[in-house]
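Single-chain item
Fold in C-alpha coordinate form
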Amino acid sequence: MLIRISQDTLLSALGTVHRAVSSTSPVPALTGILLTATDNKLRLVASDSEISIEHSVEASVESEGGIILPARYFLDIVRKLPSGQDVRIACDQANWTATITWGRSQFVVHGTEPGQFPSIAFDSGSEAINLSQPRLREMIRRTVFAVAQNESRPILTGQLLEIAPSEIRLVSIDGVRLAYCKNEIEQEGLEPQKAVIPGRAMNELARLLSGDQASSCLISVSDNQAFCHLGATRFVSRLLEGQFPPYEQIIPAKFRTAITLDTEHFHDACERASLLSADNDKTIRIEAQDDLLVVTSNTPEVGKVREEMECSVEGDPLEIAFNARFLIEGLRSIDADKIRFEANGPFSPCCIRPIDHENNIYVAMPLRTLGDA
Protein backbone atom coordinates (compact mmCIF):
# COMPACT_ATOMS: atom_id res chain seq x y z
CA MET A 1 0.00 0.00 0.00
CA LEU A 2 1.25 3.47 -0.91
CA ILE A 3 -0.88 6.59 -0.52
CA ARG A 4 -0.56 10.37 -0.29
CA ILE A 5 -3.04 12.38 1.77
CA SER A 6 -3.12 15.76 3.51
CA GLN A 7 -2.53 15.86 7.24
CA ASP A 8 -5.78 17.74 7.82
CA THR A 9 -7.86 15.16 5.95
CA LEU A 10 -6.19 12.23 7.68
CA LEU A 11 -6.50 13.79 11.14
CA SER A 12 -10.20 14.51 10.60
CA ALA A 13 -10.80 10.91 9.50
CA LEU A 14 -8.96 9.54 12.53
CA GLY A 15 -10.97 11.84 14.77
CA THR A 16 -14.13 10.30 13.36
CA VAL A 17 -13.24 6.64 13.93
CA HIS A 18 -10.86 6.57 16.90
CA ARG A 19 -13.59 6.68 19.59
CA ALA A 20 -14.64 3.18 18.53
CA VAL A 21 -11.18 1.74 19.20
CA SER A 22 -11.06 -0.78 22.03
CA SER A 23 -8.66 0.15 24.85
CA THR A 24 -8.61 -3.38 26.25
CA SER A 25 -9.70 -6.21 23.99
CA PRO A 26 -8.95 -9.94 23.83
CA VAL A 27 -8.67 -9.33 20.07
CA PRO A 28 -5.38 -7.36 19.64
CA ALA A 29 -6.42 -6.07 16.21
CA LEU A 30 -9.27 -4.10 17.80
CA THR A 31 -6.78 -1.83 19.60
CA GLY A 32 -5.81 -0.58 16.16
CA ILE A 33 -7.35 1.11 13.14
CA LEU A 34 -7.74 -0.74 9.87
CA LEU A 35 -6.58 1.23 6.82
CA THR A 36 -7.55 0.04 3.35
CA ALA A 37 -6.56 1.93 0.17
CA THR A 38 -8.36 1.35 -3.12
CA ASP A 39 -9.81 3.40 -6.00
CA ASN A 40 -8.31 6.68 -4.71
CA LYS A 41 -10.10 6.19 -1.40
CA LEU A 42 -8.69 5.56 2.05
CA ARG A 43 -11.09 3.60 4.24
CA LEU A 44 -10.58 3.63 8.03
CA VAL A 45 -12.39 1.24 10.37
CA ALA A 46 -12.36 0.98 14.17
CA SER A 47 -14.37 -1.27 16.46
CA ASP A 48 -14.62 -2.34 20.09
CA SER A 49 -17.17 -5.12 19.36
CA GLU A 50 -20.00 -2.95 20.73
CA ILE A 51 -19.75 -0.13 18.21
CA SER A 52 -17.95 0.08 14.87
CA ILE A 53 -17.24 3.15 12.74
CA GLU A 54 -16.11 3.29 9.11
CA HIS A 55 -15.05 6.51 7.39
CA SER A 56 -13.81 6.99 3.83
CA VAL A 57 -11.81 9.94 2.48
CA GLU A 58 -10.21 10.94 -0.82
CA ALA A 59 -6.55 10.02 -1.15
CA SER A 60 -3.98 9.59 -3.91
CA VAL A 61 -3.55 5.82 -4.06
CA GLU A 62 -0.41 4.77 -5.88
CA SER A 63 -0.56 1.18 -4.66
CA GLU A 64 -3.60 -0.54 -3.16
CA GLY A 65 -3.48 -2.55 0.06
CA GLY A 66 -4.16 -2.38 3.77
CA ILE A 67 -2.70 -2.53 7.28
CA ILE A 68 -3.79 -2.29 10.92
CA LEU A 69 -1.93 0.45 12.78
CA PRO A 70 -1.96 0.93 16.59
CA ALA A 71 -4.58 3.63 17.16
CA ARG A 72 -2.86 5.39 20.03
CA TYR A 73 0.47 5.94 18.26
CA PHE A 74 -0.97 6.56 14.81
CA LEU A 75 -3.35 9.28 16.04
CA ASP A 76 -0.64 10.97 18.13
CA ILE A 77 1.76 10.97 15.19
CA VAL A 78 -0.71 12.47 12.73
CA ARG A 79 -1.86 15.04 15.30
CA LYS A 80 1.74 16.29 15.72
CA LEU A 81 2.45 16.59 12.00
CA PRO A 82 2.46 20.11 10.49
CA SER A 83 -1.06 21.20 9.51
CA GLY A 84 -1.66 21.22 5.76
CA GLN A 85 1.37 19.00 5.14
CA ASP A 86 1.07 16.23 2.56
CA VAL A 87 1.71 12.85 4.17
CA ARG A 88 3.00 9.72 2.43
CA ILE A 89 2.17 6.33 3.96
CA ALA A 90 3.95 3.27 2.59
CA CYS A 91 3.20 -0.22 3.87
CA ASP A 92 5.82 -2.98 3.80
CA GLN A 93 3.88 -6.25 3.67
CA ALA A 94 7.01 -8.30 4.38
CA ASN A 95 7.11 -7.20 8.02
CA TRP A 96 3.86 -5.20 8.27
CA THR A 97 5.37 -1.82 9.01
CA ALA A 98 4.17 1.56 7.81
CA THR A 99 6.55 4.37 6.93
CA ILE A 100 4.91 7.77 7.43
CA THR A 101 6.84 10.46 5.57
CA TRP A 102 6.49 14.23 5.30
CA GLY A 103 9.12 16.61 3.99
CA ARG A 104 12.48 15.15 5.03
CA SER A 105 11.10 13.42 8.13
CA GLN A 106 9.55 10.04 8.73
CA PHE A 107 8.11 7.64 11.31
CA VAL A 108 8.24 3.87 11.00
CA VAL A 109 5.34 2.20 12.87
CA HIS A 110 4.84 -1.52 13.42
CA GLY A 111 1.41 -2.69 12.35
CA THR A 112 -0.56 -5.88 11.83
CA GLU A 113 -1.75 -7.88 8.85
CA PRO A 114 -5.25 -6.58 7.89
CA GLY A 115 -6.76 -10.06 7.76
CA GLN A 116 -6.67 -10.16 11.57
CA PHE A 117 -9.33 -7.43 11.79
CA PRO A 118 -12.79 -8.95 12.31
CA SER A 119 -15.18 -8.77 9.38
CA ILE A 120 -17.85 -6.12 10.07
CA ALA A 121 -21.09 -5.68 8.13
CA PHE A 122 -22.05 -2.02 7.80
CA ASP A 123 -25.34 -2.66 6.03
CA SER A 124 -28.40 -4.36 7.53
CA GLY A 125 -29.86 -5.36 4.18
CA SER A 126 -33.29 -4.17 5.41
CA GLU A 127 -35.25 -1.03 4.54
CA ALA A 128 -33.84 2.13 6.11
CA ILE A 129 -35.58 5.30 7.20
CA ASN A 130 -34.32 8.67 6.01
CA LEU A 131 -34.03 11.31 8.73
CA SER A 132 -32.42 14.71 9.06
CA GLN A 133 -29.12 14.47 10.95
CA PRO A 134 -29.78 17.56 13.12
CA ARG A 135 -33.22 16.18 14.00
CA LEU A 136 -31.81 12.81 15.10
CA ARG A 137 -29.03 14.50 17.06
CA GLU A 138 -31.59 16.61 18.93
CA MET A 139 -33.73 13.54 19.65
CA ILE A 140 -30.73 11.78 21.18
CA ARG A 141 -29.71 14.85 23.19
CA ARG A 142 -33.20 15.19 24.63
CA THR A 143 -33.37 11.57 25.85
CA VAL A 144 -29.99 9.85 26.27
CA PHE A 145 -29.19 11.60 29.56
CA ALA A 146 -31.92 9.50 31.24
CA VAL A 147 -30.42 6.06 30.51
CA ALA A 148 -29.40 4.08 33.60
CA GLN A 149 -25.75 4.35 34.62
CA ASN A 150 -25.55 1.12 36.62
CA GLU A 151 -25.78 -2.43 35.33
CA SER A 152 -28.35 -3.78 37.80
CA ARG A 153 -30.93 -3.75 34.98
CA PRO A 154 -28.83 -3.89 31.79
CA ILE A 155 -31.76 -3.18 29.46
CA LEU A 156 -32.15 0.27 31.05
CA THR A 157 -28.59 1.23 30.05
CA GLY A 158 -29.92 1.52 26.51
CA GLN A 159 -32.42 3.61 24.60
CA LEU A 160 -35.53 2.21 23.00
CA LEU A 161 -35.72 3.07 19.30
CA GLU A 162 -39.20 2.63 17.84
CA ILE A 163 -39.91 2.99 14.15
CA ALA A 164 -43.59 3.29 13.33
CA PRO A 165 -45.23 3.83 9.92
CA SER A 166 -45.32 7.61 10.41
CA GLU A 167 -42.86 8.45 13.21
CA ILE A 168 -39.67 7.57 15.04
CA ARG A 169 -39.43 7.54 18.86
CA LEU A 170 -36.58 7.44 21.39
CA VAL A 171 -37.21 6.53 25.04
CA SER A 172 -34.87 6.35 28.03
CA ILE A 173 -35.71 5.09 31.54
CA ASP A 174 -33.35 4.82 34.51
CA GLY A 175 -35.81 3.72 37.19
CA VAL A 176 -36.66 7.15 38.60
CA ARG A 177 -37.30 9.13 35.40
CA LEU A 178 -38.29 8.78 31.77
CA ALA A 179 -37.37 10.90 28.72
CA TYR A 180 -39.41 10.57 25.53
CA CYS A 181 -39.02 12.23 22.14
CA LYS A 182 -40.68 11.58 18.78
CA ASN A 183 -40.53 12.95 15.24
CA GLU A 184 -42.64 12.46 12.18
CA ILE A 185 -41.38 10.43 9.21
CA GLU A 186 -42.47 11.22 5.69
CA GLN A 187 -41.87 7.73 4.36
CA GLU A 188 -44.65 5.34 3.44
CA GLY A 189 -44.77 1.58 3.85
CA LEU A 190 -42.36 1.23 6.79
CA GLU A 191 -42.68 -1.89 8.91
CA PRO A 192 -42.84 -1.26 12.69
CA GLN A 193 -39.49 -1.98 14.36
CA LYS A 194 -38.10 -1.87 17.90
CA ALA A 195 -34.52 -2.00 19.13
CA VAL A 196 -32.69 -1.13 22.36
CA ILE A 197 -29.36 0.56 21.62
CA PRO A 198 -26.70 1.08 24.35
CA GLY A 199 -26.60 4.61 25.71
CA ARG A 200 -22.87 4.89 25.01
CA ALA A 201 -23.46 4.00 21.37
CA MET A 202 -26.13 6.69 21.09
CA ASN A 203 -23.80 9.28 22.60
CA GLU A 204 -21.11 8.36 20.08
CA LEU A 205 -23.61 8.50 17.22
CA ALA A 206 -24.72 11.98 18.34
CA ARG A 207 -21.09 13.16 18.08
CA LEU A 208 -20.95 11.96 14.47
CA LEU A 209 -24.20 13.62 13.40
CA SER A 210 -23.98 16.92 11.58
CA GLY A 211 -25.79 20.13 12.45
CA ASP A 212 -26.22 20.96 8.78
CA GLN A 213 -29.95 21.08 8.02
CA ALA A 214 -29.31 19.68 4.54
CA SER A 215 -27.58 16.54 5.85
CA SER A 216 -29.53 13.31 6.24
CA CYS A 217 -28.91 9.80 7.54
CA LEU A 218 -30.26 6.33 6.89
CA ILE A 219 -31.24 4.22 9.94
CA SER A 220 -32.04 0.51 9.92
CA VAL A 221 -31.99 -2.40 12.36
CA SER A 222 -31.46 -6.14 12.17
CA ASP A 223 -32.01 -8.82 14.82
CA ASN A 224 -28.95 -7.81 16.83
CA GLN A 225 -27.54 -4.59 15.35
CA ALA A 226 -28.49 -1.00 14.50
CA PHE A 227 -27.02 0.74 11.45
CA CYS A 228 -26.66 4.41 10.56
CA HIS A 229 -25.24 5.72 7.27
CA LEU A 230 -24.01 9.32 7.31
CA GLY A 231 -22.58 9.78 3.85
CA ALA A 232 -18.84 9.06 4.10
CA THR A 233 -19.32 7.62 7.62
CA ARG A 234 -21.09 4.41 8.57
CA PHE A 235 -21.90 3.45 12.16
CA VAL A 236 -22.96 0.09 13.64
CA SER A 237 -23.96 -0.79 17.20
CA ARG A 238 -24.92 -4.04 18.83
CA LEU A 239 -28.36 -4.18 20.44
CA LEU A 240 -29.20 -4.97 24.05
CA GLU A 241 -31.19 -8.12 24.72
CA GLY A 242 -34.23 -8.13 26.97
CA GLN A 243 -37.67 -6.61 27.36
CA PHE A 244 -37.77 -2.82 27.60
CA PRO A 245 -40.37 -1.63 30.16
CA PRO A 246 -43.79 -0.64 28.76
CA TYR A 247 -43.08 3.07 28.91
CA GLU A 248 -46.64 4.06 27.96
CA GLN A 249 -47.77 2.81 31.37
CA ILE A 250 -45.23 5.01 33.15
CA ILE A 251 -46.53 8.27 31.65
CA PRO A 252 -49.49 9.35 33.82
CA ALA A 253 -52.74 9.88 31.93
CA LYS A 254 -54.58 12.10 34.45
CA PHE A 255 -53.45 14.79 36.88
CA ARG A 256 -54.81 16.55 39.92
CA THR A 257 -52.59 19.60 39.35
CA ALA A 258 -51.45 21.22 36.09
CA ILE A 259 -49.11 24.23 36.21
CA THR A 260 -48.28 26.30 33.13
CA LEU A 261 -45.12 28.39 33.37
CA ASP A 262 -42.09 29.75 31.54
CA THR A 263 -39.51 27.02 30.88
CA GLU A 264 -36.39 29.17 31.10
CA HIS A 265 -37.45 31.02 34.25
CA PHE A 266 -38.32 27.76 36.00
CA HIS A 267 -35.06 26.10 34.91
CA ASP A 268 -32.95 29.04 36.10
CA ALA A 269 -34.77 29.21 39.44
CA CYS A 270 -34.17 25.51 40.02
CA GLU A 271 -30.48 25.90 39.19
CA ARG A 272 -30.10 28.78 41.62
CA ALA A 273 -31.95 26.89 44.34
CA SER A 274 -29.64 23.90 43.86
CA LEU A 275 -26.64 26.07 44.72
CA LEU A 276 -27.66 26.04 48.40
CA SER A 277 -29.05 22.51 48.56
CA ALA A 278 -27.21 19.74 50.38
CA ASP A 279 -24.56 17.98 48.30
CA ASN A 280 -25.85 14.49 49.10
CA ASP A 281 -29.38 14.85 47.70
CA LYS A 282 -29.66 18.34 46.10
CA THR A 283 -33.22 18.68 47.39
CA ILE A 284 -35.31 21.61 46.21
CA ARG A 285 -38.94 22.25 47.04
CA ILE A 286 -41.73 23.42 44.72
CA GLU A 287 -44.97 25.01 45.96
CA ALA A 288 -47.75 26.16 43.63
CA GLN A 289 -51.08 27.77 44.42
CA ASP A 290 -53.34 30.22 42.57
CA ASP A 291 -51.00 32.06 40.15
CA LEU A 292 -47.77 31.74 42.12
CA LEU A 293 -45.00 29.15 42.06
CA VAL A 294 -42.31 29.18 44.75
CA VAL A 295 -38.94 27.39 44.52
CA THR A 296 -37.04 26.99 47.79
CA SER A 297 -34.00 25.27 49.21
CA ASN A 298 -32.73 25.20 52.78
CA THR A 299 -29.47 23.75 54.08
CA PRO A 300 -29.01 24.89 57.72
CA GLU A 301 -25.21 24.90 57.64
CA VAL A 302 -25.11 26.77 54.30
CA GLY A 303 -28.18 28.98 53.88
CA LYS A 304 -31.50 29.13 52.12
CA VAL A 305 -33.07 30.56 48.98
CA ARG A 306 -36.62 31.43 47.90
CA GLU A 307 -37.77 32.44 44.43
CA GLU A 308 -41.26 33.33 43.26
CA MET A 309 -42.62 33.39 39.71
CA GLU A 310 -45.93 33.81 38.00
CA CYS A 311 -47.73 30.73 36.70
CA SER A 312 -51.17 29.34 35.99
CA VAL A 313 -52.37 26.58 38.34
CA GLU A 314 -55.26 24.32 37.43
CA GLY A 315 -56.60 21.93 40.07
CA ASP A 316 -55.22 21.31 43.54
CA PRO A 317 -52.42 23.31 45.18
CA LEU A 318 -49.11 21.42 45.09
CA GLU A 319 -46.17 21.01 47.43
CA ILE A 320 -43.45 18.66 46.18
CA ALA A 321 -39.69 18.01 46.47
CA PHE A 322 -37.17 16.89 43.86
CA ASN A 323 -33.55 16.05 43.40
CA ALA A 324 -32.56 19.28 41.64
CA ARG A 325 -30.42 17.54 39.02
CA PHE A 326 -33.28 15.37 37.83
CA LEU A 327 -35.57 18.36 37.49
CA ILE A 328 -32.98 20.58 35.77
CA GLU A 329 -31.95 17.93 33.25
CA GLY A 330 -35.57 17.26 32.43
CA LEU A 331 -36.26 20.94 31.81
CA ARG A 332 -33.25 21.14 29.48
CA SER A 333 -34.69 18.31 27.42
CA ILE A 334 -37.94 20.12 26.64
CA ASP A 335 -38.10 22.12 23.42
CA ALA A 336 -40.64 24.80 24.30
CA ASP A 337 -40.85 28.31 25.75
CA LYS A 338 -43.67 27.25 28.06
CA ILE A 339 -44.37 23.93 29.76
CA ARG A 340 -47.09 22.14 31.68
CA PHE A 341 -45.88 20.70 34.97
CA GLU A 342 -48.41 17.99 35.89
CA ALA A 343 -48.67 16.11 39.18
CA ASN A 344 -50.91 13.86 41.27
CA GLY A 345 -49.60 14.87 44.66
CA PRO A 346 -46.22 14.97 46.41
CA PHE A 347 -45.25 11.30 45.97
CA SER A 348 -46.51 10.33 42.49
CA PRO A 349 -44.63 10.62 39.16
CA CYS A 350 -44.72 14.14 37.70
CA CYS A 351 -44.82 14.96 34.02
CA ILE A 352 -43.27 17.90 32.16
CA ARG A 353 -44.31 18.55 28.56
CA PRO A 354 -44.55 21.45 26.09
CA ILE A 355 -47.92 23.19 26.05
CA ASP A 356 -48.23 23.15 22.25
CA HIS A 357 -47.13 19.63 21.24
CA GLU A 358 -46.43 16.14 22.57
CA ASN A 359 -43.04 15.59 20.92
CA ASN A 360 -41.12 15.77 24.22
CA ILE A 361 -42.23 14.29 27.52
CA TYR A 362 -40.26 13.99 30.74
CA VAL A 363 -41.46 12.03 33.78
CA ALA A 364 -39.68 12.08 37.15
CA MET A 365 -40.30 10.64 40.59
CA PRO A 366 -40.26 13.21 43.42
CA LEU A 367 -38.39 12.68 46.66
CA ARG A 368 -40.31 10.88 49.37
CA THR A 369 -39.68 13.53 52.00
CA LEU A 370 -40.30 17.24 51.69
CA GLY A 371 -38.22 18.32 54.64
CA ASP A 372 -38.15 21.92 55.89
CA ALA A 373 -37.50 24.74 53.49
